[in-house]
Design brief:
- This protein is α/β, with parallel strands linked by helices.
- It is about 45% helix and about 20% strand.
- It has an eight-stranded mixed sheet with strand order 1-2-4-3-5-6-7-8, with helices on both faces.
- Helix 1 links the parallel strand 3 (about 25-30) and strand 4.
- The longest helix is centred in the N-terminal third of the chain and has 14 residues, at about 80-90.
Length: about 290
């Protein structure tokens, strides 16, 4: 995986962020979701690197990035803080402006990055999310059943951490395999990396803190944006899986149009893990957009 890419470790404020870099041309930041790492991009990174200098990063709390203990108000895992990590990373690698392609939790970080740092993001692609505030405010029984972990992981420490750490592989396989495509999209090599990282010290706490922040301080930031009229200003493409809970429980494009000025998008014939389920189709949709076509 990631043939020709180099490992990067960059100090970003209070944490060191781990990433893989490769290719040449304009900068393109790739951000992953839960409970995964930058490895989700292994099926598309090589093609993207023909056009961009690709930086596939691990979010704080995930992968081989640092996993600090959470603050009482979860501020050090807010999407604002996690977005600042990535701006610092890209700046350290020589990119003042860059494109962003992001999935799941990483797409929530990317949303915040585009709002807080509008001069940094040239174009934004989000995969299989609707805005966090909309999803929490419109929670239904169907959504809660499909995304039970949104409510499990935000319970006070150390209960969810203890249960995850008791059997990380069970948590990984039940979470990822419980989606529409089962375990079929994931290669053995990628799964081994996801499990290795989930077993690392602090990993369970890091991902719980990510979710705790989303249910608290992140919602405060999102509501403040709405009140002030702050939106995503760059051109944006929202893609989601028609077989996933986001597409079935929400109207993603309608919700994005409430918080982004120039957004288009569509459902793809797959589930949640688009980059691993349908890498070719993702490239067909995202690459021309990122190139400005």
């Amino acid at each position: 995986m990631f043939e020709g890419f180099e490992t990067r470790r960059v100090r970003c404020g209070d944490v060191t962020i781990h990433a893989r870099g490769g290719g040449q041309g304009p900068g393109l930041l790739l951000l992953h979701g839960h409970p995964q790492t930058h490895v989700i991009w292994h099926k598309v990174a090589g093609t993207l690197a023909r056009h961009f200098t690709v930086v596939a990063a691990d979010l704080r709390g995930y992968g081989d990035s640092d996993k600090p203990a959470g603050d009482p108000d979860h501020a050090n895992y807010s999407k604002r803080t996690m977005a600042r990590d990535q701006v610092t990373l890209m700046e350290a690698l020589g990119f003042e402006r860059f494109g962003v392609l992001a999935h799941d939790r990483g797409a929530r970080v990317a949303h915040r990055l585009a709002v807080d740092h509008p001069g940094r993001v040239q174009r934004l692609v989000t995969l299989d999310i609707a805005p966090t505030l909309a999803m929490y405010e419109q929670t239904s029984l169907a959504f809660a059943l499909a995304y039970y972990h949104w409510f499990f992981l935000i319970r006070p420490a150390p209960v969810p951490e203890t249960l995850i750490e008791a059997d990380p592989e069970l948590y990984l396989r039940s979470t990822m395999g419980g989606r529409s495509a089962g375990m079929a999209p994931f290669t053995d090599a990628a799964l081994a990396e996801y499990l290795r990282c989930l077993k690392s010290p602090g990993a369970a706490h890091g991902l719980c803190e990510d979710y705790r922040a989303s249910a608290t301080i992140d919602l405060e930031h999102d509501r403040a944006d709405l009140a002030a009229g702050r939106q995503v200003e760059c051109e944006m493409l929202a893609l989601w899986g028609e077989q996933g809970a986001v597409g079935k429980c929400f109207a993603p494009l309608e919700e994005w149009r409430k918080v982004a000025r120039r957004v288009r998008g569509r459902a793809l014939p797959c589930g949640h893990y688009i980059a691993e389920e349908m890498p070719e189709r993702l490239l067909e949709e995202a690459l021309p957009f990122l190139l400005g076509a």
